[in-house]
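Give me the fold.
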Amino acid sequence: MKFKTIALVLGLSCGFISQSFANEAESLKLKLRSLNTFEASFTQKVKDEEGTLLQDGTGNIALKYPSKIRWQQLEPDETLLVSDGNKTFYFDSFAEQVTVMNTAGLIDTTPFILLTTQDKAQWDKYHVSKTAVGYRISPKPNVESQVELLDIVFASAGVAIDSLSIKDASGQTSTFKFSNAKTNIELDDKSFTFKIPHGVVIDDQTASE
């Protein structure tokens, strides 16, 4: 009887936890549903597990629902990630190489794509919890992810994203602080298309995904 009681309590506890995660995920999805477009500049700081600063950076970002992303890093190295919702292109100008990936497959390596989709199947791969200042997204145990934690902080007013903090599997944390943010403005779909420059190395990973 005692074992059965403990089992019931554990079962109820897990049920409450799962329901809590589900409610908080819906809360975040509802907030993001109001964010049809987002455009901003950012500063980036990368720190190791001990908190030592490894790198500073700057760049700009544009998001458009559904699943459209333009993420351009200007310093310390110039790189560009562009997704039209179907394919994602990562261009490293220094290496003169373009990596082509299926956007749908990226959800298994980073929860960042959740910012631009309401797809239940994608959200079901992650836990969402509230923090003192925003939301925390972490992969469920069966999801292979390069990202352990993604913290999202929204501006005090409206739906603009104030900052993102990403902890990867190596223990490094990248924090992006946004400025000059604009929300729900008209963004041309051409901003989310990428024309591969002539003469660069192309790493097409779409066939193997």
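DSSP finds two helices and twelve strands in the chain.
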